[in-house]
């Protein structure tokens, strides 16, 4: 094996693999800092359920928008 | 106004990257001893496409090439009024998270698991297989800590989708050495990185 090809192989061995979309999703969706919050579901002034929230701020915000839009339509 | 949060960086860091998702400008919000990077979230639409994930990853990767970052989970949206109180209330744990991972990136080694054995037909078999799998992970972890000792500050091992995933907290200047050692020990494995060291963020933040 020539010195040049040895050098190319050596460089290749220290290069990481290209991350797939699944790798990216694993890292950005399943790990990282979560801002936590809480919500109390009440009915007629009585607190019924307490939920600790993690990593669902986007979903909740989106849900609140949908609920608000739905209420406007009624 | 809603802000999309990317990550926490050291307080004196400056970034050459100027845009976040959707080409919107990145901005930095200073807390006590750290900064939080964000961009405006102008769209009313959800951040749920593969392109959004790729763009988020592009931003985090660009930051990693310049400075340390503890990433927020995609897609953390927060109002700009709330951000101020979050920065104040969580200052000490944000600083601790930066200190824990300072000067390091995360490298992942994914090694396919050869065989999980026969599908469990009883509860006892299921528990036995689960215990054996936990034992294997523990062995891999112990072995990896010894093997990568000089080139990694910490190792975490998990099982994910039929593969053993070994995440290493690697000092920036030891990445090439880590790669060479990892390729030698795990020739069939996929090795990806550098990632933001999210696997090493304290449990209280995740």
Q: What's the layout of helices and strands?
A:
The complex is a heterodimer of chains A (74) and B (206).
Chain A: H1 3-13, H2 21-30, E1 37-43, E2 46-53, H3 57-73
Antiparallel strand pairs in A: 1-2
Chain B: E1 2-10, E2 26-30, E3 34-40, H1 50-64, E4 70-79, H2 80-89, H3 91-100, E5 104-112, H4 123-147, E6 154-160, E7 163-171, H5 175-185, E8 190-195
Antiparallel strand pairs in B: 1-3, 1-4, 2-3, 5-7, 5-8, 6-7
Name some characteristics of this structure:
heterodimer, A: 74 residues, alpha+beta, two-stranded antiparallel ribbon, 3 helices, elongated, B: 206 residues, Alpha-Beta Plaits, 2 domains, 4-stranded antiparallel β-sheet, 5 helices, 34% helix, 30% strand
Shape of chain A from CA axes?
Answer: elongated
Mean pLDDT of chain A: 63
The total count of helices of chain A amounts to 3
- Number of E strands of chain A: 2
Ends apart, CA distance between termini of chain A:
77 Å
Q: From N to C, what is the helix and strand string of chain A?
A: HHEEH
How many domains make up the 3D coordinates of chain B?
2
Oligomer: heterodimer
Strand % of chain A is 15-25%
What does this structure look like?
The complex is a heterodimer of chains A (about 70) and B (about 210). By secondary structure, chain A is of the alpha+beta class. Chain A has one domain. Chain A is about 50% helix and about 20% strand. Chain A has three helices and two strands. Chain A has helices at about 5-15, 20-30, 55-74, and strands at about 35-45, 45-55. Chain A has a two-stranded antiparallel ribbon. In chain A, strand 1 and strand 2 form a beta hairpin. The longest helix of chain A is centred in the last third of the chain and has 17 residues, at about 55-75. Chain A is elongated, with a radius of gyration of 25 Å. The model of chain A is unreliable at about 55-60 (pLDDT under 50). Chain B is an alpha+beta fold and about 210 residues long. Chain B has two domains: about 1-100, no CATH class; about 105-205, Alpha-Beta Plaits (2-Layer Sandwich), CATH 3.30.70. Chain B contains five helices and eight strands, in the order E-E-E-H-E-H-H-E-H-E-E-H-E. In chain B, the strands form two sheets. A four-stranded antiparallel sheet of chain B has the order 2-3-1-4. In chain B, a hairpin with a 3-residue loop joins strand 2 (about 25-30) and strand 3 (about 35-40). Chain B is globular. The mean pLDDT of chain B is about 90.
């Amino acid at each position: 094996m020539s010195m040049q090809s040895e050098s190319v192989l050596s460089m290749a061995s220290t290069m990481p693999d290209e991350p797939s979309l699944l790798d990216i999703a694993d890292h950005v969706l399943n790990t990282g800092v979560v801002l936590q919050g809480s919500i109390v579901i009440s009915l007629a002034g009585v607190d019924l359920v307490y939920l600790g929230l993690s990593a669902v701020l986007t979903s909740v915000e989106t849900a609140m928008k949908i609920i608000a839009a739905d209420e406007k339509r009624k | 106004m809603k802000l999309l949060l990317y990550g926490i960086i050291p307080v004196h860091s400056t970034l050459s990257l100027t845009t976040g998702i959707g080409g919107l400008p990145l901005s930095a919000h200073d807390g006590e001893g750290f900064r939080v990077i964000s961009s405006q979230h102008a769209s009313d639409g959800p951040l749920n496409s593969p392109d959004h994930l790729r763009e988020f990853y592009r931003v985090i990767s660009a930051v990693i090439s310049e400075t340390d970052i503890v990433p927020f989970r995609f897609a953390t949206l927060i109002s700009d009024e709330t951000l101020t109180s979050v920065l104040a209330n969580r200052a000490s744990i944000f600083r601790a998270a930066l200190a824990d991972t300072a000067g390091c990136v995360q490298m992942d080694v994914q090694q396919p698991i050869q065989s999980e054995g026969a599908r469990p037909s009883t509860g006892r078999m299921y528990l036995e297989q689960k215990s054996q799998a936990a034992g294997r992970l523990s062995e891999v972890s112990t072995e990896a800590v010894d093997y990568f000792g000089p080139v990694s500050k910490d190792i975490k091992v998990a099982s994910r989708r039929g593969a053993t995933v070994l995440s290493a907290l690697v000092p920036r200047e030891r990445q090439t050495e880590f790669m060479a050692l990892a390729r030698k020990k795990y020739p069939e494995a996929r090795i990806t990185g550098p990632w933001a060291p999210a696997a090493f963020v304290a449990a209280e933040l995740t």
